[in-house]
Design a protein that fits this description.
The structure is a single chain. The protein has about 110 residues and is mainly β. Helix content is about 0%, strand content about 60%. The protein contains no helices and 11 strands. Strands 3-4-7-8 form a 4-stranded antiparallel beta sheet, with no helix packed on it. The chain has a 3-stranded antiparallel beta sheet with strand order 9-10-11, with no helix packed on it. Strands 1-2 form a two-stranded antiparallel sheet. Strand 7 and strand 8 form a beta hairpin.
Length: about 110
Protein backbone atom coordinates (compact mmCIF):
# COMPACT_ATOMS: atom_id res chain seq x y z
CA UNK A 1 0.00 0.00 0.00
CA UNK A 2 1.16 3.51 -0.72
CA UNK A 3 0.35 6.73 1.12
CA UNK A 4 0.61 10.33 0.05
CA UNK A 5 3.49 12.12 1.75
CA UNK A 6 2.58 15.80 1.70
CA UNK A 7 6.10 17.12 2.33
CA UNK A 8 7.55 15.02 -0.48
CA UNK A 9 4.63 15.61 -2.85
CA UNK A 10 4.52 11.95 -3.87
CA UNK A 11 3.34 8.49 -2.89
CA UNK A 12 5.65 6.46 -0.65
CA UNK A 13 5.57 2.81 0.46
CA UNK A 14 3.58 2.41 3.66
CA UNK A 15 2.49 -1.20 4.22
CA UNK A 16 2.57 -4.55 2.44
CA UNK A 17 -0.61 -6.62 2.63
CA UNK A 18 0.23 -10.31 3.01
CA UNK A 19 -0.78 -12.82 0.37
CA UNK A 20 -1.12 -12.90 -3.38
CA UNK A 21 -4.08 -12.65 -5.73
CA UNK A 22 -5.31 -9.14 -4.89
CA UNK A 23 -7.52 -7.75 -7.64
CA UNK A 24 -9.74 -5.02 -6.20
CA UNK A 25 -9.87 -2.67 -3.21
CA UNK A 26 -12.69 -0.62 -1.74
CA UNK A 27 -12.80 1.81 1.18
CA UNK A 28 -15.70 1.59 3.63
CA UNK A 29 -16.31 4.47 6.03
CA UNK A 30 -18.64 3.85 8.97
CA UNK A 31 -19.19 5.56 12.32
CA UNK A 32 -16.90 2.84 13.74
CA UNK A 33 -13.94 3.69 11.54
CA UNK A 34 -12.30 3.26 8.18
CA UNK A 35 -12.02 -0.17 6.57
CA UNK A 36 -10.49 -1.50 3.37
CA UNK A 37 -11.90 -4.54 1.54
CA UNK A 38 -9.50 -6.55 -0.64
CA UNK A 39 -10.91 -8.97 -3.19
CA UNK A 40 -8.63 -11.81 -4.28
CA UNK A 41 -8.91 -13.25 -7.78
CA UNK A 42 -6.74 -16.27 -8.61
CA UNK A 43 -3.57 -17.98 -7.34
CA UNK A 44 -1.42 -20.21 -9.49
CA UNK A 45 -0.91 -20.30 -13.23
CA UNK A 46 -3.35 -20.20 -16.15
CA UNK A 47 -2.77 -23.93 -16.60
CA UNK A 48 -3.47 -24.70 -12.93
CA UNK A 49 -5.41 -21.86 -11.25
CA UNK A 50 -6.85 -21.87 -7.75
CA UNK A 51 -10.02 -19.78 -7.63
CA UNK A 52 -11.47 -20.61 -4.19
CA UNK A 53 -9.69 -18.02 -2.05
CA UNK A 54 -10.21 -15.94 1.07
CA UNK A 55 -10.54 -12.19 0.67
CA UNK A 56 -9.95 -9.73 3.53
CA UNK A 57 -11.43 -6.82 5.40
CA UNK A 58 -8.90 -4.58 7.14
CA UNK A 59 -9.48 -1.88 9.76
CA UNK A 60 -7.35 1.24 9.85
CA UNK A 61 -5.95 1.63 13.40
CA UNK A 62 -4.49 5.10 12.82
CA UNK A 63 -1.12 3.80 11.66
CA UNK A 64 -1.72 0.67 9.60
CA UNK A 65 -4.32 -1.75 8.26
CA UNK A 66 -5.07 -4.77 10.47
CA UNK A 67 -6.98 -7.83 9.20
CA UNK A 68 -10.32 -8.15 11.00
CA UNK A 69 -12.16 -10.65 8.78
CA UNK A 70 -11.65 -13.07 5.92
CA UNK A 71 -14.46 -14.32 3.69
CA UNK A 72 -14.71 -16.70 0.72
CA UNK A 73 -14.47 -15.57 -2.89
CA UNK A 74 -14.14 -17.63 -6.06
CA UNK A 75 -12.26 -15.77 -8.73
CA UNK A 76 -13.32 -12.49 -7.12
CA UNK A 77 -13.40 -9.62 -9.60
CA UNK A 78 -14.90 -6.56 -7.93
CA UNK A 79 -16.40 -5.03 -4.82
CA UNK A 80 -18.80 -2.11 -4.61
CA UNK A 81 -19.90 -0.19 -1.55
CA UNK A 82 -23.55 0.90 -1.58
CA UNK A 83 -24.67 3.49 0.93
CA UNK A 84 -28.33 2.85 1.68
CA UNK A 85 -28.49 5.62 4.29
CA UNK A 86 -27.85 3.34 7.24
CA UNK A 87 -24.71 3.13 9.39
CA UNK A 88 -24.09 -0.30 7.81
CA UNK A 89 -23.50 -0.03 4.03
CA UNK A 90 -23.87 -2.92 1.62
CA UNK A 91 -20.90 -4.65 -0.03
CA UNK A 92 -21.52 -6.18 -3.44
CA UNK A 93 -18.84 -8.76 -4.29
CA UNK A 94 -18.67 -10.24 -7.78
CA UNK A 95 -17.04 -13.60 -8.48
CA UNK A 96 -16.06 -14.97 -11.89
CA UNK A 97 -15.00 -18.59 -11.57
CA UNK A 98 -16.40 -21.30 -9.33
CA UNK A 99 -14.07 -23.55 -7.31
CA UNK A 100 -14.16 -26.07 -10.20
CA UNK A 101 -13.12 -23.27 -12.62
CA UNK A 102 -16.45 -22.82 -14.37
CA UNK A 103 -17.96 -19.46 -15.28
CA UNK A 104 -20.84 -19.96 -12.90
CA UNK A 105 -19.91 -18.07 -9.75
CA UNK A 106 -22.53 -15.92 -8.05
CA UNK A 107 -22.31 -12.36 -6.86
CA UNK A 108 -22.91 -11.85 -3.14
CA UNK A 109 -24.35 -8.90 -1.21
CA UNK A 110 -23.19 -8.45 2.40
CA UNK A 111 -24.35 -6.00 5.06
CA UNK A 112 -21.20 -4.37 6.47
CA UNK A 113 -21.53 -4.54 10.25
CA UNK A 114 -18.47 -2.93 11.84
Amino acid sequence: MLRWEVGAGRFVAHQRLAGAGGRELAVVRTPNGLHVVRINFIHGTPADPTTALRSQIYRWDGARLETVLEFPTTGGTDVGVLDDGSASPLLVVTNSLSADRRFAAESVVYRFMA
